[in-house]
Structures are given as C-alpha cells and as structure tokens.
Design a protein that fits this description.
The protein has 33 helices and no strands. By secondary structure, it is mainly α.
C-alpha cells in the first residue's frame, strides 16, 4: 500500500480540527489500532514476452506479435496443429481483442484446421464478450456436428455470457438443459457464476436455493459462493440473513476473508448498527485480517451519510496513521457528508485539499460539490465549479449537467437551464429520463405549460421513453393550472403508453379533481386505484378529505376520516387546520359535532 506523504498528513491535519470522541469505540482503542497494519505486497513482475520458433509455445505481448506469428504459421507446410494456433489466440483473448480472435479463427477454418474443444470455447467466449449470444450458441451446435461434447468450460462461458447481458433466466435454462441432459457436470465456477447472476438482479432467494443444490450435484461451495450471497443480502438490507449465512459458512469450516468482512461491515453500517460494526472489526483484527482502504471507505461513507462527519474524519486520521492513503472515494464521502449538513465551506476545503494532493479530483468530486451548492441555492458557485471541470482535464457527465440544470430550474433561471441542456447534447452527453423530467418540472413550475406539453411530445418521439415520474410532473402542472380535463386525458392514456400510475400520480389527479369540484370522480378514482393494485396512502386520504371539507361535504369527509383511521393513517396538519377552522365558525355542521362527540 502506498504510504501517504508527510505533506499529505499535514494537509489533512490542517483540515481536521480536534473533535469529541464519540461513535465507534474502536476508533480510539490504541491496541486495536495497532492491529490495523496494512502489509504491503510486492508487485509481481511479468516476464518478457517474445516470439519463439520451433516446438516451444509462442509467446506474444501485443496484437502485432500475434498476427506476425499467426501469418508465419499459416505459411508452414505441413500446417502446425490446432493446438499451436490456439496458443496464439489465447493471449489475444486476455488482451480483449475479441474481433481479431474471431477473424483469425475464420482464417484457421478456411485453411482446413479442425477446431478442438479449446478453440471452440475461445470462440464462444469472444462472442459472449461482444454481446452476441446468438452466435455463441451457434458455436455450441458445432460441438455436436464435430462429434465433440461440450465440457464444463463451455457451460461456464455461456452462462457467464448470459449473466453479462443480465439474461439470468436464459442462463438458468441453459444450466438446467445441459446438466439435466447429462452433457457435462457443473463445477463450483458454474454455480458461482449463476449465483452471481441471481444476486445481480436481486433474486437472493434463487441464489440461496442454488447454494443448497450444490452438494446434491457433487459440488462444494467455496468462499466466493458465500461472499457473493452475503454481499448481495447486505446491499439489500437483509443483514440478519447475511449474518446467518456467515455463521453457516464458518460452521462448514470455510474461513472468512477481507471481502466477507467488508460486505458484512457495509451491511450493518448502512443500517446504523455501529455496535455490530465494531464487533466485526474486532473479530477480523483478532484473526489477523487487517482493514484495507475499502474497509475504511465503508466506515467513512456510512458515518457521513449518518451526519457523523467528525467520526468520519477520525477514521481518516487512523488510515493515515496506519500508512493507508485516503483515496478519491474517501474524500468524496467526506465532501458529501459536509454537503448533507449544509457545510459548504468545509466541503470546499476537502475539495481544495484533493486539488493540492494532485490528480485526486474526479467528475464525481465536482458533481458532489455542484449538488451541494445547488441545494443551498448558491447556483453561481455551482456554475463556477462546472466551468472549471475542463480546466482540470475532466469531462462533465450526464449527472453533472442534470444536477446543474436542476439548480437553474429551481432558481427560476430557465433560459440558462435550456442553454445548458443544449450544450450538454452538443458535447455528446445524452440526457436521461431524469434530465428530461427536471426540464419539464421547471417549465411547469414557471407556468410554461404549452412548452412543457410540446417538450413531452419531443421526449415521446425520442428513443428514451418517459416514465411515470415524467408524466406525473406534467399531470400536476396541468392540475395546478386548472386544466383538469387535460390532466385527466393524459392520465387515462398512461396505460396505453405502457406506464402504470403510482400512488403519487393518483393522489395528484385526485387533488386536481377535488379542486375542480369533481368529488364523485375523485372518490371513484380512489376506489379504482385500489382495484388496480395501487393502495392509497395517508396523503391520498388527506387530499380527498380536504376536498370534501372545502366543498362543504362534512358528512362524507368524516366517513373518509373513519376509513383512513381504520387503515392506520393519521390526519395531517392541513386536514386538522381545516377541521379546526370548521369548529371555529358560528354554525358548526351537526354531523361533524356528532362525530367529534363520539370520538371523545
């Protein structure tokens, strides 16, 4: 691990002020801190690669070498064996020159060189890496035509290809077909790849079920198997399940490693379970497993997200003491922590520290600072950071532009937002759905509805389809402008566009109908949303109750208040204000009086 320079230590010390010692006890335990010593590893020297003739294996280090050797081999008579040609293709795969490998493979076939298992597996891998699973599967057919049986490497390569494309269901079907058909026996890599795919799409249940099937198929899970599922469970806030699986792993005699502990620590920290994080840190240290920069970054980020920036800075100081240099991720988390607390001067100090350290600032660093300034309504300062990005040798990304556009829109500076939107596209940064939604929201909030509708039509005509958030923004804009029928027309057409309204969309539409005096339609929509699988929430009920009260239908309002209470929702401040206002009048509705008397 690279040690921090003396200058770095002094720089961070000047940024950090002495703070109270709260938070996790391990931060100030000297014996434990002494255990957090990072062992530096010697870099592995790669041997020189060169070309050799004769019977030795050809060694290549770049495409030019490979092409030279390949052409030379094609000229020999008799032609070298398929093994020799495959030895040229393999290094090119490692160099990720997949199209070149496929081209050379075609030349081999044209020269009458019959492929073997390894050649076909290389070809399948290249097609998978190029997202051409159709071609990869067609190569699988060649196995049978050549009288060859696919081996476990073939199966693993194809499953990995499907997982890379997020086609996990296809990977699972292939797994079942090959294994049930008895074509080959899966190994731990097969199971691990498919488990990783299930975890990637959030299907932890399927991953755990597959773990249970491993031993039945004569395959023992390894540390990678357990780490993959533990990490996925932790990220999905299923920390107790992750800890249970951890216990099962240890019970099987599989020793946890740094990756295991990092996943668990991240899981408990994300839920603010600091005591468990401390216990895990003690446990790993006692086993001779020392935190790395990733471990410390987890702690720094978790503290900052919890608003505990002082504790986060303590962690950074421990890093420096242990010779682990804080990286861009570390400082970005600190900046974000200050921004969340509205401490923009301190966030800027961290940013300036990164600049003095040299080449530490990335686009994410700038995005964090821009977002912080925008949230504080300091748009000009945000724009200044934006203009400096190219000067730092960086390129603003979609997040950069979208964040600043949102700042301009919320500040009512629409012309500057639209100019930035055009500049974004001119510089090759494609707007996403969030960018379009922000522009629409700005137009609607500034009473530019005709422009908003026109802009929505442009989005619908593009490759990027608007989502429910986009349509909800326009529906709300129309309702606020009193154009309830237009809002209703847009709302009713959502299903035809393949968009399902959510509870916010329904609530906004109900509010619009109430404001338009269409109480019957509003309540019909309240009933309709439930029938369509979208349950109303407290906000929905309060909205329609206020609609009835404002339209002097106290009887129906009290009935809905009863229904709302039965479903576990409470009256909000606005609803209570209206009820208090009704009670303060000279003549109080007898239905309301009877209802209140019954409640008392």
């Amino acid at each position: 691990m690279v040690k921090m320079t003396h200058k770095s230590v002094l720089s961070f010390s000047s940024y950090c002020s002495y703070s109270s010692r709260r938070g996790m006890p391990f931060l100030h335990s000297t014996p434990l801190v002494a255990l957090f010593h990072s062992q530096s590893s010697n870099p592995t020297k790669s041997g020189e690669t060169h070309l050799k003739n004769g019977t030795s294996k050809p060694r290549v280090s770049n495409v030019e070498d490979a092409l030279k050797v390949f052409d030379e081999m094609l000229q020999r008579r008799p032609l070298p064996s398929v093994v020799r040609f495959t030895q040229v293709l393999a290094p090119l795969v490692k160099l990720k020159h997949y199209p070149t490998v496929l081209s050379l493979n075609s030349q081999m076939l044209l020269s009458g060189i019959r492929p073997n298992h390894y050649t076909l597996n290389i070809t399948i891998n290249c097609y998978c890496r190029l997202n051409r699973m159709d071609y990869a599967l067609s190569v699988l057919a060649h196995f049978f035509k050549l009288g060859l049986q696919p081996d476990v490497a073939t199966l693993n390569t194809l499953i990995h290809g499907f997982v890379l494309q997020n086609r996990v269901a296809d990977a699972a079907r292939l797994f079942s077909k090959i294994v049930v058909g008895g074509h080959c026996q899966p190994d731990v890599v097969t199971f691990n790849t498919l488990i990783k795919g299930f975890c990637a799409i959030g299907n932890n249940t399927a991953a755990i079920q597959l773990l249970g099937k491993m031993e039945a198929n004569g395959c023992l899970p390894d540390i990678i198997t357990f780490n993959t599922i533990i990490d996925s469970l932790g990220k999905d806030t299923l920390v107790d399940e992750a800890l249970n699986l951890f216990s099962e792993m240890v019970g099987r005699g599989i020793a946890p490693d740094l990756v295991t502990y990092n996943s668990l620590i991240q899981g408990v920290c994300n839920l603010g379970r600091w005591k468990e994080a401390t216990r895990l840190l003690y446990e790993m240290a006692s086993q001779g497993i020392f935190p790395n920069v990733f471990t410390f970054n987890i702690l720094v980020d978790a503290f900052c997200k919890d608003g505990m920036v002082v504790q986060a800075k303590n962690v950074v100081q421990i890093m420096i003491q242990r010779g682990i240099e804080p990286d861009t991720v570390t400082y970005n988390s600190l900046m974000d922590g200050h921004c969340l607390r509205g401490e923009m001067d301190k966030a800027k100090q961290v940013f300036d520290l990164m600049v003095t350290e040299g080449s530490m600032v990335d686009v994410q660093s700038c995005n964090i600072l821009i977002n912080g300034y925008c949230k504080q309504k300091k748009i000009d300062k945000a724009y200044k950071i934006f203009k400096e990005i190219p000067l730092r040798g960086l390129v603003p990304d979609t997040v950069t532009y979208t964040t600043l556009i949102d700042g301009f829109c919320k500040a009512g500076r629409l012309q500057e937002a639209e100019k930035l939107f055009s500049e974004m596209q001119d510089h090759g940064q494609l707007p996403d759905v969030q960018t379009y939604s922000i522009i629409l929201d700005g137009l609607c909030n500034n009473q530019q509805l005709s422009e908003a509708i026109e802009f929505l039509r442009e989005i619908e005509g593009s490759k990027l389809k608007p989502d429910v958030v986009t349509y909800t923004i326009v529906i709300e804009g129309l309702c606020n402008a009193g154009e309830v029928q237009s809002a209703k027309d847009l709302f009713c057409g959502l299903s035809l566009k393949g968009v399902q309204p959510n509870v916010r969309t329904y609530t906004i539409m109900i509010n619009g109908l109430c404001k338009g005096g269409l109480l019957v339609e509003a309540e019909e929509m309240l009933r309709e949303m439930e029938q369509k699988g979208c349950s109303p929430n407290g906000c929905t009920y309060n909205t329609i109750i206020r609609g009835y009260i404002n339209n002097n239908d106290t009887s129906r309002a009290t009935s809905l208040i009863e229904e709302m209470s039965e479903r576990g929702f409470s009256r909000d401040a606005s609803t209570m204000e209206l009820i208090v206002d009704l009670l303060s009048k000279d003549t109080v509705d007898p239905v309301l009086l009877a209802w209140l008397k019954d409640k008392v």
